[in-house]
Amino acid sequence: MKKVKLWDYHVHTKLCNHARGTVEDYVKRAIKINLGEIGISDHFPMNLLPEESHDFAMSINEFPEYLDECKQARNRYKDEIIVKIASEVDYFPMTFQGYKKLVSPYLETMDYIIGSIHIIKIPETKTFAIDGPIANEKFNLFGENKIFIAYYNTLIKMVKDGSDFYNIIGHMDLPKKYGDFLGESEKIWEKIEFLLDLIEEKELVVEINHSGYYKPVGIQYPDDKIIRELVKRKIPIVLGSDSHQIKYLAYNFEKTLAKLKKMQFEDKIQVNLCKFSKKEKTLIKLDSII
């Protein structure tokens, strides 16, 4: 079996206004730690999201410059590493069609799109960031079930609306970020199972996002119970550090690989990781990873 080097498909540069490091900084670091590929996936401009998001991404005028910087790094280091060009594009139901139009001129350049949700709406309050400091206040006011179910309902809508647009589902239990509310009730789990069935049906890929390890919750997104369901459903997996500093590139990937190998052995199911090129996926057997 041909052995394959690891890859990290979720990193952010200083261009997104809340991270550090250039595209080249990340590529050099990836080479140093012996990755086979790196996917640069800065946030797409958030000008169509509620105003509280606008400062967490580049402007629409800067996006072509971002793509050019990625292309230059890809060409400069092509003999040492494969550089994939991507973007994390937030889903917000009321503006999704507008986002598709904004992204469409750049689709030929991109290898994949990560679909994420950071902003949600429940009837009792205005929109808010599910991973922002205000989140715990909302949990305390409205309860864990209401917040998580609203989040998962939005993810379900994202999968239904965007299965021909998104390739990877990013950090799919993000509301647990602060570690006080983990979304483990029976009602929430029913919603998660429905979402996973839909992801399987639409043949999407789910990211295991490692940024939770260096956030208050202290564990990856999604949790082990959800990961086991991904394995059982044979849903392909991508590893992403969601690093906003180069020191977190491929952070704790070895822990996830060990978990997946254990689940593969226990469930006697082949676990596949996934790569993308021009939005076409290639499955990589877990056992082939170096």
Architecture blueprint of SSEs:
Elements: E1 7-11, H1 23-32, E2 37-40, H2 63-76, E3 82-90, H3 96-103, E4 112-116, E5 119-120, E6 128-129, H4 135-142, H5 144-162, E7 168-169, H6 186-202, E8 205-209, H7 224-232, E9 237-240, H8 253-267, E10 272-277, E11 280-285
Parallel strand pairs: 1-2, 2-3, 3-4, 4-7, 7-8, 8-9
Antiparallel strand pairs: 5-6, 10-11
Helix pairs in contact: 4-5, 5-6, 7-8
Walkthrough of the structure:
The protein has 290 residues and is an alpha/beta fold. The protein has a single domain (7-288), classed as Metal-dependent hydrolases (TIM Barrel). Helix content is 34%, strand content 17%. Strands 1-2-3-4-7-8-9 form a seven-stranded parallel β-sheet. It has a two-stranded antiparallel ribbon with strand order 5-6. The protein has a two-stranded antiparallel sheet with strand order 10-11. The mean pLDDT is 96.
